[in-house]
Known about the structure:
- One of its GO terms (biological process) is SCF-dependent proteasomal ubiquitin-dependent protein catabolic process.
- It is elongated and about 85 Å long.
- It has a domain at 5-59.
- It has helices spanning 5-14, 27-35, 40-46, 51-59, 85-94, 117-120, 137-146, 162-171, 188-197, 236-242, 289-298, 315-324, 341-349, 367-377, 397-403; strands at residues 63-65, 100-102, 126-128, 152-154, 177-179, 203-205, 226-228, 250-252, 278-280, 304-306, 330-332, 356-358, 381-382.
- A 13-stranded parallel sheet has the order 1-2-3-4-5-6-7-8-9-10-11-12-13.
- The protein has 15 helices and 13 strands.
- Helices cover 33% and strands 9% of the residues.
- The protein is of the alpha/beta class.
Amino acid sequence: xDLPDDCVNVIDDSQSDNSTTIxDLPDDCLVFIFKRLSDxxxxxxxxxxxxxxxxxxxxxxxxLQFDCSITYTRQLSRKPHKIDKHDLHRALSRFxxxxxxxxxxxxxxxxxxxxxxQSFGSSLRALHLDCCFEITDNGLSFVASGCPLLxxxxxxxxxxxxxxxxxxxxxxxxxxxxxxxxCLGITDHGINGLVQNCAHLYGIRISNCRGIKGVGFHxxxxxxxxLEAESCKLEPEGIxxxxxxxxxxxxxxxxxxxxxxxxxxxxxxxxxxxxLRVLNMRLCRMIRDEGVALIAKGCPSxxxxxxxxCHEIRVAGWESIALNCHNLERLHVNRxxxxxDRGLEALKNGCKKLTVLYMxxxxxxxxxxxxxxxxxxxxxxxxxxxxxxxxxxxxWWHQRIxxx
Length: 404
């Protein structure tokens, strides 16, 4: 590894002057050393040496998470400290070049607390505001004006509306991953503002945002690859809009049994989801054979498909999966009431790459059919029921903020 020029000069000088000590090293050299301390304890001890070394430690800290965070690991007997804007000011003043800041769980933090980001947020790439119940559009406006380099923001259960989301999207054009789960004030107008302004969006989470029908995704970028939309009141036109970008690889639209009726989900197979690899349709109880057939034909890249509790899929639907899903490796059919021996036989004879079949609670499946499947496919039937599927993309941004 190459040392900074200042360090080389100090080393050269030390050969002729025995009085040179480590305290004579320039800041660039100390920063070089600090960044190569891989152990977190070593980094903390570094700052205990002297005031100068503490300052170097502070200026090179990249992430901060308060102990009130809902993701913070602590003893149950320890009462979390409530963070106010004065605590936040001290922390941001001490660590002025943070790239990741978590205020998740600061339930009483007011909008005015985020005003500090106008002075200290210019380096932030990731901001977590999960369960910050007092944060509204006003607080989000401070984020928009103070954090132009954001690529990730989590607003889980924040009291924001379309106005705040649009303002954020207009200022933070580099946003790539946005968590809006349980933001009940967000509608398709806010989503449209987000996808139209942020051309590099990679992942969006809108689960339980019941004001979103899906039409706001119309015209989304091909970069959009990850979309969580569980328990949303989606419409057929909205489903088509969600896949319209053509780059979607993961889609979760589970628990739509009370929303879309009939074959409204068939829009997924309309030709724009050819790159879709993981599809979660658990509890989409009204999907029928015709819709399943269109999806099976229109999504040739499918590797994992969750159809648990989809009771209206019958023999024709299972046969279409067996015939068209050539890349399918994992299929979830837990508690599908109309999966029968003929349907299981079709899956056995087709889906050549299928390695795991999650199946239990299917009353029309006989013991003989299960044994025949195992004779042909080995021990590929798993009786467990998996509620969460898909790639571990929720922390993909974590590496990005340190690579730049």
